[in-house]
Amino acid sequence: MEGYRAPGAWGATTRRQRATATPVLLYHGVHDDPEGPAERGHFHPVTSVRRDDFARQLDAISEAGYRTRRLDEVDGPAADKRIVLTFDDGDVSNVEVVLPMLVERGMVAEFFVVSDLIGTVGRVGPGDGAVLSAAGMGVQSHTRTHRPLTVLTPDELRDELVTSRQVLQQWAGSRVTAVSFPEGRGRQREHLAALRTGYTHVLGSLPGPNRRWEQGACLERIAITRQTSTEQFRALVTWSGVGPLRARLRYHTFEGVKRVLGKTA
Fold first, then answer.
1. Fold of the 15-260 domain
2. N or C end: fewer C-beta atoms under 10 angstroms in the chain?
3. Is the Cβ–Cβ distance between 208 and 239 less than 8 Å?
4. Per-position DSSP letters for 133-152, written without gaps between them
5. How many other CB atoms are found less than 10 A from the CB of residue 129?
6. In angstroms, rounded to a whole number, what is the distance separating the alpha carbons of residues 69 and 84?
7. Integer Cα distance of 121 and 37 in angstroms
8. What proportions of the chain, in percent to the nearest 5, are helix, strand and coil?
9. Buried b (16+ CB within 10 A) or exposed e, 175-197
10. Contact 163, 179 (CB under 8 A)
11. Cis ω on the peptide bond leading into residue 7 (within 30° of 0)?
12. Of 166, 179, 220, the residue nearest 24 (C-alpha)
């Protein structure tokens, strides 16, 4: 989200704030086979995590003493080591692969779905929203069409936010309180529009540990990819070592390239 964190500015953090950091992990799909049929999900060479790697990551979270939380459960002082798992795009592997692995471990996650893609090839289906909600998972918005919000007119922006929320609440039978911006692209206009249309949590893609959890601010997220080793995963979750520096560098390099190509508003 181009480093945007309003409404509050984050200055120097205290030792207590560092100790109560809340990592928010960003996943997409979980796929083993690059040649798998489209009906089994949309494989991506970077964002598609292998099933065994994902299992090891979930177990590493538990071994480190973290407990998964829903976004609405994080507001307020931390009573334990908490972590939020998020999945963007609504890939069918989220229900067929991810959900059973979470339930088996007593974990929860937030699933950000593109409402117009429900029922299309490789995406979650008409009945999957109720399945996720019944399992204690969160269903949230990844907008209506997945268009970059920064290039939309005010009316188009409102439609992406409002329509997706309405559709997803009916689809899942639960409240939708959060939105993650497609490609992490959004600044003050998009952020404030989300808050004004009823969202209480806004998520971008700037890597970071969320050392200070502020209502309405843009949350940082740590992207987990197919190339993330277990050792790298632990370093990212604890935001220690050189891994976080590399993650920030990659992010800002990518954002710079997008600006040069004219893909950022």
1. TIM Barrel (3.20.20)
2. C
3. yes
4. HHTT-EEEE--SS---GGGS
5. 26
6. 5
7. 10
8. 40, 15, 45
9. bbbbbbbbbbbbbeebbebbbeb
10. no
11. yes
12. 220
- Please give the Cα distance from 159 to 153 (Å, whole number): 10
User: Per residue in 179-224, pLDDT tens?
Assistant: 999 988 899 999 999 999 999 999 998 999 998 888 889 999 999 9
Q: Which residues pair with 87 in a beta bridge?
A: 27, 111
The tokens describing 80, both together, are 């334990």
Burial of 210 (0-12, 13-18, 19+ CB in 10 A): buried
Torsion from C-alpha of 126, 130, 135, 136, nearest 10 degrees: 120
Q: Where are the alpha helices (DSSP H) in the chain?
A: 15-19, 51-63, 71-74, 93, 99-105, 128-134, 154-172, 188-196, 230-238, 243-260
Do the bridges between strand 110-113 and strand 178-180 make them parallel or antiparallel, or are there none, so unpaired? unpaired
Tracing tokens 């329509």 back to the chain, one arrives at 163
10 close to 206: Cβ distance less than 8 angstroms: no
Token pair recorded at residue 115: 């409402």
